[in-house]
Amino acid sequence: MKAIVLCAGIGKRMKPYTETYQKTMIPIQGKPLLEYIVNGIKIAGFKNFIIVVGYRKEQIIEYFKDGSKWDVNIEYVEQKKLNGTGGAVLLCENLIKKNHFFLTWGDILVPYSIYKKINDIYKNENHDFILVTNYMDDPFKGAAVFCEGNYCCDIIEKPPKDKSVSKLNNCGVFIFSK
Q: Which of 92, 112, 156, 159 could be cross-linked to 40 through a Cys-Cys bond (beta carbons 3.0 to 4.6 Å apart)?
């Protein structure tokens, strides 16, 4: 299964840092944020990556190259028109050979154990779709996830402050069926 990491965005809310860096390449303790994400996904058992690049793509490509330094394989897809997550994933369609793929954003770091747990759940239970959430008093800065039973029925991006009835926030970590 391939891991797709979305890294095309400009990072307007992260200025002034993104005037110099691609948002996924902002250094944290001497390493770019994206390196921590790649390492966490690798530890979870993924070796084949597709990194969707766009804004300041050369920083990512020059740093990670083919991924061999991290003992992974990296392919790059350029998202020239920044038309959201769905547009980015569709650019990867021809590179996804198996029925399922892992998806995450390159600017959200979660504990490495989450990457491993989602992969273990997939292997043991073989769901068509897995979405990771975290509990928040108010998900107004993220995306409120609404569920019926064990199924996601809606995701509201940046709901108005103090208005969401859902306390679940989208972590941006998924496994999807192609």
A: 112
- For position 49, what pLDDT does the model report? 98
Structure tokens at 77: 């897809």
Residues 20-42: pLDDT tens digits? 999 999 999 999 999 999 999 99
Residue with tokens 């990072």: 11
**Which residues contact residue 105 at a Cβ distance below 8 angstroms, ignoring those fewer than 6 apart?**
5, 6, 172
The DSSP output letter for 178 is -
What b/e readout covers 7-41, taking b as 16+ CB neighbours within 10 angstroms?
A: bbbebeeeeeebeebbbbbbeeeeebbbbebbebb
Distance CA 82, CA 103 (A): 17
Q: Which residues of the chain have pLDDT under 50?
A: none
Q: Would you say residue 93 lies in a domain?
A: yes
Cα distance between residue 14 and residue 55, in whole Å: 13
146 within a domain of the structure (yes/no): no
Q: What is the CATH number of the domain that holds 65?
A: 3.90.550.10
Q: Is residue 117 part of a domain?
A: yes
Beta strand extents in 61-115 (DSSP E only)? 73-78, 100-105
Question: In the prediction, which pLDDT does 111 show?
Answer: 93
Identify the domain containing residue 58 by its residue range: 2-131+172-177
